[in-house]
Amino acid sequence: MYTRRVGKNGDTALVVASFLGHASVVVRLLAAAPDSIDVNCADGAGKLALISACSNTASDNSAVVGALVARPDVDVNATDREQSTALMQAAYTGNSAAVKELIARRVCVYRTASLVRTYVQRAQRGSYNST
Known about the structure:
Elements: H1 13-20, H2 23-32, H3 49-55, H4 62-69, H5 86-93, H6 96-104, H7 119-125
């Protein structure tokens, strides 16, 4: 129901709400149909809700990331079409809260993407600089 394609780019409600940081919408979508919503469903661009939540640099998506990773069926190691993961996006955008949340959820830190070799390189290309 909620993973149905909408819009000309094949966006899903969950992916759009996750990217925009609308935590209350994400929570409502997840609660409305907990057994029928696919949190790992990619949109038309191949993005997943968790990766999208970690991609937005304009807002603090920690509540969205928290709501998504709290689901037992979320794949924290899932990749998009470019083989990027949520951790890669969080590192690239400098989202330290998401990085910590994902690592706490035992995300794989050894995965590489086709465009960037390691998470450290991804973080260096973006804005993440933790001391």
